[in-house]
Amino acid sequence: MSFFASEDERRSVSSVSRVVLDASALLALLNAESGSQAVAERLSEAAVSAVNLSEVVAKLSERGIPESEIRSALDGLGLEIIAFDETMAYRAGLLRRATRSVGLSLGDRACLALALQLEAPAFTTDPSWKTLRIGVKVRAIR
């Protein structure tokens, strides 16, 4: 299996999305942290993996924010949420070997797998991603 998406896979995802957000980038935006402006500027073009959305929901829930407020905040962003299907599962799993040296989690690899599929840059707060040579342009927002 190739890391790269076939033409059919790319067509199956909206062509409107031009950037992919890691959970850390989305949390930076929601918390108005350093780097949030870079995310805000591309928000209308942003997609996020359902895996990364789950990470954000978990972090907000851990802070005691009620589900209704979490949904309201996230729904209001207008993000394109992309399902983590079998193809994405294989792609993320196959990225393990190439990303192990920087200790990326499944969520990190889900973000990168989606960026590969969309042929879009991945936005993150983790500068170590920039050392990866996997065919994804990485934008470390801080």
> What's the number of extended β-strand segments?
5
Instruction: Give the low-confidence spans.
Output: 1-7, 9-15
How many domain regions?
Answer: 1
Helical content stands at 40-55%
Overall geometry comes to globular
Largest sheet: 5 strands, parallel
**Class inferred from helices and paired strands:** alpha/beta
CATH superfamily (homologous) name: 5'-nuclease
N to C succession of SSEs = HEHHEHHEHHHEE
Residue-averaged pLDDT: 91
Q: What is the count of DSSP helices, taking H or I runs of 4+ residues?
A: 8
User: What is the CATH first-level class name?
Assistant: Alpha Beta
Question: Could you give a quick summary of the protein structure above?
Answer:
By secondary structure, the chain is an alpha/beta fold.
Structure description:
With 142 residues, the chain is α/β, with parallel strands linked by helices. It has a single domain (23-140), classed as Rossmann fold (3-Layer(aba) Sandwich). The protein has eight helices and five strands, in the order H-E-H-H-E-H-H-E-H-H-H-E-E. It has a five-stranded parallel beta sheet. The chain is globular and about 40 Å long. 36% of the residues are buried. The model is unreliable at 1-7 and 9-15 (pLDDT under 50).
